[in-house]
Specification:
single chain, 267 residues, Cytochrome Bc1 Complex, Chain C, 11 helices, 66% helix
């Protein structure tokens, strides 16, 4: 069976052994010894898992002509999501999802915890950055025609990721449980309740009861910390797989060169 893995780049190919290594002598310097041990550990893991083949298939692939910085918007969105996940886990160590203690716990994070204001600011403004990046990424995909065959499924997954990102921002807005977040979320849930058919059921689901209270905050916290991040991570995994499987598209103004052999066959 032919080997379908792409070749390693020249920079990642193993270097030829030196004379001392050919004779079986150990590396002389401490740095060389540590590097040798690290390479041996990586080789040991790779021999038992074959992860290098999958990583090579995912990361090293051909890209079309005309690729520019707009193609990095997807990677920037992924980085923003990872930053949100890390800062969210740190904030969850101090946050108390209780109607009577939520605001006080947020105040404690901001004023008392070491670098708490910085981490909370990263999480708060990072959500806005992530929403902007998602819209920019989808705009680039639309205007470049990257939603066409055979990438329709990847476009659908991207739309789902956009909706999940907006819903995650909506659920996180209530967590400080101050006056602004309380009444803004009340209006938002009421707007959802006016939708046809599923609107009233969605309203009851989000409120987790007849009115806003402790159960509502716990419902939003569970959605924000468990359900939505897991769904987004799964969708991102599927999205990246399809990107690696189908490749990226060239800008529509770039014309591909036709193989001369194909020109002869057409003639």
């Amino acid at each position: 069976m032919a080997n379908l893995r792409p070749p390693l780049p020249r920079a990642l190919r193993p270097k030829p052994k030196g004379p001392s290594e050919d004779n079986g002598h150990a590396p002389t310097g401490a740095r060389e010894a540590v590097a040798e041990k690290g390479i041996s550990a990586v080789d040991w893991v790779d021999e038992r898992t074959s992860l290098s083949g999958g990583a090579r298939w995912l990361m090293f692939r051909k890209i079309p002509r005309g690729t520019n910085w707009f193609y990095t918007l997807g990677s920037a969105t992924l980085f923003a999501f990872l930053a949100q996940a890390v800062t969210g886990v740190i904030l969850a160590m101090y946050y108390d999802p209780s109607a009577t203690r939520a605001y006080e716990s947020v105040r404690y994070i901001t004023n008392e915890v070491f670098l708490g204001e910085f981490v909370r600011g990263m999480h708060k403004w990072g959500s806005t950055v992530m929403v902007i990046l998602v819209f920019l990424h989808m705009g680039r995909t639309f205007f470049y025609g990257a939603y066409k065959y055979p990438r329709e499924l990847n476009w659908v997954i991207g739309v789902v990721l956009l909706l999940l990102t907006l819903f995650m921002s909506f659920t996180g807005y209530l967590l400080p449980f101050d006056q602004r977040s309380f009444w803004a979320t009340t209006v938002g849930v009421a707007i959802n309740g006016t939708g046809p058919l599923v609107g009233p059921y969605l309203n009851d689901f989000l409120r987790a009861g007849p009115e806003f209270g402790t159960t509502t905050l716990a419902r939003f916290y569970a959605l924000h910390m468990l359900v939505l991040p897991g769904a987004i991570a799964a969708m991102i995994g599927a999205h990246l797989y399809l990107v690696a499987r189908l490749g990226t598209t060239a800008p529509p103004w770039i014309k591909t060169d036709i193989d001369p052999e194909l020109r002869k066959e057409d003639a």
